[in-house]
Amino acid sequence: MIFRRPSPAARGLNPGSVRGLLALVGGASLCLACTEAPDEPAQSEAGEWELVEDLRLDANAEDFSAIRWVFVGPEGEVVVHEPQDVRLRIYDSAGSLVATIGRMGEGPGEFRHLGPVLWAADTLIVDDALLSRTTYWLPDGTLVRTEPMRFFEPNWDAAGGSSFFFGFGPSAVDDKGAMLGVATRMSVSTNGTWESSRQVVLRVGRDGEPSVLAVPPQTDDERWGVTVSGVTNPVPFAFQPWPEFAPDGSRFLFATTDQSTLDGTISLTMIRPSGGRE
Asked: Could you give the count of Cα atoms lying within 13 Å of 114 in the half-sphere of its Cβ?
């Protein structure tokens, strides 16, 4: 279902509020929401939102398998992510199936691992970590091109050691075509031993060159982790800060909290890659 917030007039409010984005997967229905026109100014309001159904995609009629993510495109396209079948289903804003892309394999348009969907203007971008490549699609299911993913290796000859980036996972594409996401910066010594690792927000340009935009707060708080055989996992239900990115790569958000007490306060920091915090 696509849900929207009722119009301001219907709620007795001044015009100009923006409809919220909601994705719900459960039962026999898939629920989504589209945003209001981009030129409408945001309006802060207190109180609860009432949701009104705009569109329903019935799981039985569409024969969905396990759904991991749902993505909404710039024109209201709905992309349903089915990792079990290694495929994406693309619907238009009216809920009509436009295309089904992907299947298990290593050929053009095939995947071994179906990553999240990113949008660059009207183009879908999908990463395959197992095949180490990125595939570009049009919303009608047309395959545009496939590019190898960028690898970052240490400079073993650097005096005093060096660092490199590992596990880059793109989460957004900016207006210059660069990918933004989270990676781990690994530091190594001249004899090849690991010195340290730290999570960073990385920007990888079209030329493949990486640059660090920010360093998120550390998430490996020993008070909220359990280490067994050298592997540390978070305590269940502990708060795990993770950067969230705007789809256009214009900004990203950190959430942090002091978990020394059970009623810790969550702090939010928004960062724009061009500079500045909010």
From this structure: 25
In DSSP terms, 256 is beta-bridged to 267
pLDDT in tens, 172-191: 888 888 889 888 887 776 66
Secondary structure (3-state) at 148: strand
Mean pLDDT of 137-142: 93
**Cα gap 23→33, rounded to integer Å:** 6
E-assigned strand segments in 116-251: 117-120, 123-128, 133-137, 143-148, 162-173, 179-188, 194-204, 210-214, 225-228, 231-234, 244-245
Domain boundaries, the chain: 2-108, 162-271
Q: Which of 262, 171, 265, 269 is nearest to 214 (CA)?
A: 269
R_g of the chain, CA atoms, integer Å = 21
Q: How far apart are CA 66 and CA 156, in angstroms?
A: 44
Beta strands, E only, 149-224: 162-173, 179-188, 194-204, 210-214
pTM of the model: 0.66
Distance CA 147, CA 137 (A): 12
The H or E element spanning position 60 is helix 59-62
